[in-house]
Amino acid sequence: MRVPKLLDLDVLDSRLPSLLAQALACVAALFSALTAIVVSSPGLAPMAALLALLMWLLAKSYSPVAADAARMVSVLNGPVVAHLLECVESREYLRTFGQQPRAVAHALCVLEASARAQILNMGLQRWFALQLELIGGAMLLCVAVTIVLQTDAHLGMSGLSLTYALTLTALAKYLVNYSTRSSAQMASVERLLALSGLPSEEEVHSKVEQPDHETGTGDLA
Predict the structure, then answer these.
(1) DSSP codes, 113-164
(2) How many domains does the chain have?
(3) Which residue range(s) make up the domain with 148?
(4) So which domain of life are we looking at (predicted)?
(5) Cα 21 off chain centre by
(6) First to last CA, the chain
(7) Residue 7, CB half-sphere, CA atoms under 13 Å: how many?
(8) What is the CATH number of the domain that holds 183?
(9) Does residue 22 fall inside a structural domain?
(10) pTM for the full model?
(11) Burial group, residue 94, by CB count within 10 angstroms (0-12, 13-18, 19+)
């Protein structure tokens, strides 16, 4: 029980704060990009607001499903590694007792479950990336059309708005991926809470070793 608990503490100490910091950095970069587009082309303010709303709705619908898929991949990957390590360490016992077919069948089952979870996770990521590409392409088209229609457009500001419009898709994808990974790492918090609620080994042994005192009544002759 100590090893998983130490791993969960390592996740809380190092990985989770790093993921949250990267997500906040992506939020700041995305907000800066939208602000730069609006400042360079004020006529794109309604389109930028609509784009931000669409990205927020898309991320809101994608994040819970992606977090569950990432947790599923993490949960199903553990039995694969544990089973393969046990088979390698105890291969002579498997050969002695003729349990090789059973071990191979179990390994194939856990590998299939892990592969299905990874395929689902990759499919979700690609579908989300496609939707973000469509939204980013629409924003880039609006910026380009607005610049072309403006007769007195400044070349420097137009190039600035186009440059930031090209980075919107990547920033939104990084933001949602970091937030999804942070949400998936919150499973470590749940495991720590579950482990902290378990009774200690001393309490369990004391309850098991404590004899049952039976009281009886009788007269001594």
Answers:
(1) HHHHHHHHHHHHHHHHHHHHHHHHHHHHHHHHHHHHH-TT--HHHHHHHHHH
(2) 1
(3) 2-193
(4) Eukaryota
(5) 15
(6) 56
(7) 9
(8) 1.20.1560.10
(9) yes
(10) 0.66
(11) middle
